[in-house]
Every structure is written in C-alpha cells, then in structure tokens.
Amino acid sequence: MNQEQIISNTKLFVKDTLKDAEGGHDWFHILRVYNNAKNILSNENADKFVVELASLLHDIADSKFHGGDEEIGPKKAKAFLETQAVVPEVIDHVVKIINNVSYKGGHNQTDFQSIELDIVQDADRLDAIGAIGVARTFNFGGFKNNPIYDPNIPANPNQSKKEYKKSNSPTINHFYEKLLLLKDKMNTKTAKAIATQRHDFMENFLDQFYKEWNGEL
Ligand code: ADP
Ligand code: NI
What we know:
Number of strands: 0
Organism: Psychroflexus longus
Protein name: HD domain-containing protein
Shape: globular
Distance between the termini: 59 Å
InterPro entries: HD/PDEase_dom (IPR003607), HD_domain (IPR006674)
Bound molecules: adenosine-5'-diphosphate, nickel (II) ion
Domain HD/PDEase: 22-138
CATH superfamily of the largest domain: HD-domain/PDEase-like
Number of helices: 9
Pfam families: HD
CATH class of the largest domain: Mainly Alpha
Radius of gyration: 18 Å
Strand content: under 5%
Number of domains: 2
CATH topology of the largest domain: Cyclin A, domain 1
Order of helices and strands: HHHHHHHHH
C-alpha cells in the first residue's frame, strides 16, 4: 500500500470511529487540524506522512469521553496502523505524538520531542482558539450542561470561589483557564502568526460579551 492509500484509509477509519462524537471533537475537528497541520508543514522541514497520520489519529479516543483512560487512544491508533502495514518506526512516532499532544500534557513522562509533534500540537491548539474556538467551547459547555457565565464567579481562575466543580464551571471561565493562554504556547512561526489574529478575535468577543451582558451595547 502506498502512503496516499494509507492516508485515505485512515480518513475513512477516523470518520467512522467518530461518527457519534461531541461536535467539538468530531470528524470536522480532525479535518481542520489536518488542514492546519498541512498549512504549517509547508513552512517546516518535517516528515509529512507522520504529521498527516498523527493529526488524523490524535483524538481517536479522547480520555475525556472514555472515563479518563489515556491508553485507549494510542492503542486504537496503533492497532489500526498495524492493519495498514505501516512500518514500526512510523507507528511508534505517531503513537508518541498522540500521547504528548494534549494541552494538559498529563502523560508527558517521556519528555518526547519532535518537529512533527510540534506541528500537530500547534494544529490542534489553533482549532481551540478564534471563532472556531468560541464555537467549540460553548458547544462543550452545553454538552456538559454548564452555565454560560456567572457574574458572581470571577472568570479569573486565581480568584475562583470554588462554587462550581472545575468541570462544571461557567464556559466563559475556560477562556481564562486555557484559550487565552494558547497564543504564547505555539511552537512554530506559522502557528504563532495565525494565533495572534485568532487571539485578538477572542479578546474582542469577550469585550462585546460583557458589554452586552451589562446592557451597555
Ligand atoms: P486537549 O485535547 O488539547 O487537551 P481538550 O480536548 O481538553 O484539549 O479541549 C479541546 C476543546 O474542548 C477546548 O478547546 C474547548 O473548546 C473544549 N473544552 C474542553 N474543556 C472545556 C471546558 N471545561 N469548558 C468548555 N470547553 C471545554
Ligand atoms: Ni484535537
């Protein structure tokens, strides 16, 4: 099988596996991350096949939706790639990327680093910010039945009064806990440039949100 066929089979596998996924972590999220990764790749010297496979497989079984099990995603990806007769070195690299791509980095015990990981991580983080980031975040909050905003709960997590469990805190808080921090975490120049623009959009969104909330607009 050539690489083009393997990529095409991987797309079909991921699309089918994620057919019932939450809207922010569905096939279209994967497709956007894959396209972001290809965009970044055009300015970097990296293994294209590894980046493409890892971006397609990075959320194949997100632990958030699998009872916190962080092993299931990498295992599923490995088993699939074995059916495609992908060489072991590539499988190993893709699995390491999946293990290390998450923002939380909970399983970063290996200190693994590669330009391919940097690219997939940037591609995933870009999809968490900007207009898409806003949409995904409110979709996730709705999925969890969380409040949109609560003026009695400071949005800055350092001042949080713990009125809500973190996983049920108002969706606006997620901007301060994560989304507004992502711009400074980008690895590649290409992603940094895109992130700056998407970050400004979120700042404007929040300004407008508070003005409307307070009846000032
Ligand atoms: P990663 O896979 O990089 O660790 P997550 O899967 O936790 O990131 O987050 C992906 C997206 O899901 C976030 O960018 C956000 O849109 C949404 N999300 C995750 N956690 C929350 C939350 N507590 N409140 C609102 N949205 C969330
Ligand atoms: Ni993702």
